[in-house]
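Render this sequence as a predicted structure.
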Amino acid sequence: MSRVGKRPVPIPGGVTVTVADEQVRVKGPRGELLHPVLAGTTVVVEGGEAKVSSERLTRNPAFGTMRAKIQNMVTGVTAGFSKTLEIVGTGYRAAMEGRTLVLQLGFSHPVRFESPEGITIKVENPTRILVSGADKAQVGQVAADIRGFRPPEPYKGKGIKYEGEYIRRKAGKAAGATT
């Protein structure tokens, strides 16, 4: 059985966790999140803690996952999650037009990305984008979608990368190489 899954999830003040109709609902200052209870697990909220238990004594892979999902939801509605993207390349830049992110990435046209509900995209400067929200998976997916418009290339490192991401560089074409 999962060692992580055995630990209860503490529920801070201002956050309510309810389980009804096979759904876990977490409500807090930053919003409300829902997640279905995974098969083979049960969730019980008692005494300021959410506890996940497995119906079977055998190994259940969803056991630790369910506990981690609840922990991420509680963290999301209290502190939130964020990912920072950096744009590298001459002339590459980002700007916001309302809820639409407009990216100049060396294509013949600007790339437009509409911010989904529950996600905030902020352009701190033309080469730095901050994606934030309460749902950890959604924040990561939106950041990956934006990065996917122009992933960093291995020769000069141009493109959109995560903050702190290491881009493994390749050597360029050797001049005067003969066969």
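Summary. The longest helix spans residues 62-78. Residues 76 and 134 are 4 Å apart (CA to CA).
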